[in-house]
Amino acid sequence: MRTTIRLPEDLLAEAKQLAARTGRTLTAVIEDALREVLARAEGEVQSPPFRLPTFSGGGPLPGVDLDDSAALLDVMEGLD
User: Fold this and answer.
1) Digit-coded pLDDT (tens) for 24-44
2) What are phi and psi of 36, to 5 degrees?
3) Residues 12, 29: Cα–Cα separation, whole Å
4) Taking a C-beta distance cutoff of 8 angstroms, is the pair 26, 15 a contact?
């Protein structure tokens, strides 16, 4: 299908250069760019907002070093 679009000269020049570098037509470059933008926009709409649950508390247990993963694992295994 044929249609007419208006592009800024610098954008058109970049698209033509990309087409020449990649051995594609200008139409193919514009199609790919438009498909990519549409796919990205579709993905944004479909993702529902995610809320991370939070809980109140007094922080870590006394003596727990959050920088020592091995010691933290030992404490967590002892809580079971």
Assistant:
1) 999 999 999 999 999 888 766
2) -65, -45
3) 11
4) yes
